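Minutes, project huddle
Topic: does the predicted pose make sense with glutamine bound?
PN asked that the exact inputs be recorded in the minutes so nobody has to dig through chat later. Recorded below.
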Amino acid sequence: MTTTGFGQSTVLGYPRIGSNRELKHAVEAYWGGRIDAAALERTAAALRTDVWRTLRDARLDAIPSNTFSYYDHVLDTAVAVGAIPDRFARLGLSELDTYFAMARGAQAQPALELTKWFDTNYHYLVPEIADETVFRARPEQALREFAQAAALGITTRPVLVGPATFLLLAKPAEAAGNPFDRLGELTDAYAGILGALADAGVPWVQLDEPAYVADRTPAEIDALRAVYHRLGGLDRRPRIFVATYFGELGDALPALLDTPVEALGLDLVAGPGNLARLAAAGPLRGRTIVAGLVDGHNVWRTDLRAAVAVGATLTGLADNVSVSSSCSLLHVPVDLAAETSLAPALRERLAFARQKVDEVVLLGRALRDGVAALPAPLPAPPAHWRDTSVRARLDALHPAQLRRGDYAERARAQQARLHLPALPTTTIGSFPQTDDLRKARAARRAGTLDDAGYTERMRAEVAHVIRLQEDLGLDVLVHGEPERNDMVQYFGEQLGGFAATEQGWVQSYGSRCVRPPIIHGDVTREHPMTVEWSTYAQSLTNRPVKGMLTGPVTILAWSFVRTDQPLADTANQVALALRDECRDLEAAGIRIIQVDEPALRETLPLRTADQKAYLDWAIGAFRLATSGVADSTQIHTHLCYSEFGEIITAIDALDADVTSIEASRSKMEVLDDLRAIGYGRGVGPGVWDIHSPRVPSQDEVVEAVRRAVAAVPARRLWVNPDCGLKTRGYTEVEASLKHLVAAAAEVRGS
Ligand code: GLN
Ligand code: ZN
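Predicted holo structure (tokens), as shared on screen:
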């Protein structure tokens, strides 16, 4: 035991969905009225118990609690500080149903906004802070979990999002002031929580401040210091562990060391520079450094010897060093043991959450007792993971091959082939994923529907979607993507160098889980992936059908990616496969190809200093994928977020002929951004917010199109929804698209 009693090993959090997604099934059953609140709570308690016992049995020293959540841990923190917006409080629902109303919306009350948790694929609910919000200490949930674990004989460390990060992630309610200005009041509420935890005998609390690994102003850093001075100065409190993750703390590191907090957590995987910064900070007497040495954000086994070396450096700097995961293990699948069909050479390189706990424990011991106990290093990866021809092709690429012709030339050649009217109408790609389609997929998995039967079913759907679009009078059609379970998984299942898991589920938001593919080797395209679907759709109509691909950046963003070569190299390998696919689509008579990059913005590095290098490779990979076609083939891209400002020049640099973007919620602000940089190619700002079941009226769409026409000449302007339609129902889709087509005609005629 170290003097402060933190222990040698810990994790910052653990998956809460259960090894068989029990949480998903239980909350969905509750929402569907199939089980009551008591039954839901029983499942939750069993899941928590299971996690605590697992961690204890793995001999992890310090075990977190309050990492369970029915939906999202940021929402839980909002509840713990009384930040329940009045619009939900006044619904008069039970505590649990108020909570779910904030997460999912209710009775004409839209949900809190959902957005990405830093650079992960986890989404949190954005706290909404009104001037009237009164922060209050509501430690009940944290206390309940602590007591529940204590009853099992397990002492835990409650985890909460820290006050500074909480407010930096929050947004003001309509017409309210900046939430961050309320930090003093919020800190008082945290002081109340800490007092209650101390009264209950809680020895340590973990407050997460990941917002400080992004660029922060000196004032924001001073505010952080003030918060922990105040909390550290309380006489009734647990010991405080401030956890940071996803990158380098920079100037916030000395600021935190300037306060009385007993332990500081640093991510040494995503933020290796934290080590030098710590060394520069001077002696760390009495302080515990919690070293994030095991990657919580990827699935690869840790290089234990390298990790021990970093740990040894730390031991020379601080009195107490504890080993942890670099971030919560929430972002990786639960247990590798559930995988039965992974190739042995891949499997032996992987560690999911359960295996990462073992690594943390082992490293903690190795730091104390020396390296003797470490397992032998891995053998070299199998030779067939390398593909020399892909590598040779990439090496031989000439910059000229990445450039398309002059845009004016392209536009002429494309129009000569496409004969599109002004304000052409189109959709983003997917049409509703009906129960029927899901059933067909399930039947095929279960073996009750053979491949031929499945294909026939999907073709019938494509035919239906084409007929519908012709009837509606859309100008550029799509095949509707019925055959795709997920826009990344679909390609991952067909490309070489990728592996799929059976049970590798990771929470994306609420009850939604995804199963990201694993990119372990060189990426190869073994056969065309989309050509048959697109050409079948095109055979049914004279109007142009868009080919539909997922771009290299998005494929990487939604996969677990190998770490033995730069991301840029892997992105280029994916891009090369897509380049071949584009060429095959073109050769098969497809005149327009859309390459979706919805993740371009979300994987933007948190620190400005790192953004240029990222954008360079991201743009390079997109252009590699799309520049192999003739000038007369029109390349579209789709980006689905509205905060464009920061990356607007990067979007221009993609050099797509047409870019469709989410815009309806932000009232077309993006068009001003585009105009400001002199963007001169096609653009399709979304005129229908597909995140809501509401059908926009023709007048509303007309108004949106008119606003767009004021900013972009009609010959470059497209009329389309914000995003794909897969989550919508047919009734809304038909009505909305009818209004969309009529609105385009009305504006054209005026
Ligand atoms: N083509 C995809 C679809 O329509 C794009 C999805 C997305 O933007 N996330 O579903
Ligand atoms: Zn989208």
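Observations noted during the meeting:
- Residues 451-472 form the longest helix (22 residues).
- Residues 17 and 264 are 28 Å apart (CA to CA).
No decisions taken; revisit at the next huddle.
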